[in-house]
């Protein structure tokens, strides 16, 4: 079906609420044909749903490649992979859908040359499964992924609870520290005359470096002025590296001041 298809008829415009009302009228004694004329639901559709007791909405056009249960399995698998920091991209999902249909012997009209499902299937899948969306993930290092597990988090909160019970810190003395990185090169604009071959934008450098920013705030709302960590010109001369303990000492000195 074309992506910008426009309906040309009024078939299947009735809603599920109208269908439920029509079935209730039939069960109260009204004839199916009379209810069909008053509600605008086709006689055959209303008769079939009354006999089977199904309150489903009308379905027009070609049926989806996968059943509702199969698409739920695919959606749940995507959620599991995303929670494991191995989310799939749209092309990966299209390849997985093609392989899923091939291995299970499901009849499909996917592209056999590229071994991928098409864009129309992807858009329909996202519409039928609103719990799945295309998101840009945040790059996460392998060490952080390995450390973010139930065992490590349990140890952390257990130690935190013991320290809190022992020293009874006030909100003023509880600080949360986080770091982020910013580039030293501005983001260039992307508006330029059409047809121009070379497009440039003035920046401070062509290849910038990342600067680390450390921010800290306590539970009472007081914050420490942010600390900027600039890259060294020659790391081998000093032989020193920034560590978490060193950063905490610098923050303590600022607090004491």
From TrEMBL:
SUPFAM superfamilies: Homeodomain-like. Its main location: nucleus. It comes from the Eukaryota. It is found in: Nucleus. This is HTH CENPB-type domain-containing protein.
């Amino acid at each position: 079906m074309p992506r910008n298809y426009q309906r040309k008829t009024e078939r299947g415009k009735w809603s599920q609420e109208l269908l439920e009302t029509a079935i209730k009228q039939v069960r109260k004694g009204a004839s199916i044909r009379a209810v069909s004329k008053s509600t605008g639901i086709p006689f055959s559709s209303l008769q079939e749903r009354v006999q089977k007791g199904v309150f489903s909405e009308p379905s027009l056009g070609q049926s989806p490649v996968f059943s509702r249960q199969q698409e739920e399995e695919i959606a749940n698998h995507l959620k599991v992979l995303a929670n494991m920091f191995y989310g799939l991209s749209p092309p990966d999902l299209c390849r997985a859908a093609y392989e899923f249909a091939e291995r299970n012997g499901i009849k499909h009209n996917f592209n056999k040359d590229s071994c991928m499902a098409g864009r129309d299937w992807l858009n329909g899948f996202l519409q039928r499964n609103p719990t799945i969306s295309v998101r840009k993930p945040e790059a996460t290092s392998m060490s952080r992924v390995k450390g973010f597990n139930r065992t490590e988090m349990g140890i952390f909160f257990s130690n935190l609870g013991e320290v809190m019970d022992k020293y009874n810190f006030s909100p003023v003395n509880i600080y949360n520290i986080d770091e982020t990185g910013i580039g030293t090169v501005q983001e260039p604009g992307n508006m330029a005359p059409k047809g121009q071959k070379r497009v440039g934008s003035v920046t401070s450098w062509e290849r910038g470096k990342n600067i680390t920013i450390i921010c800290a705030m306590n539970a009472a709302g007081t914050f420490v002025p942010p600390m900027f960590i600039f890259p060294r010109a020659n790391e081998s001369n000093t032989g020193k590296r920034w560590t978490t303990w060193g950063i905490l000492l610098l923050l303590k000195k600022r607090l004491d001041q």
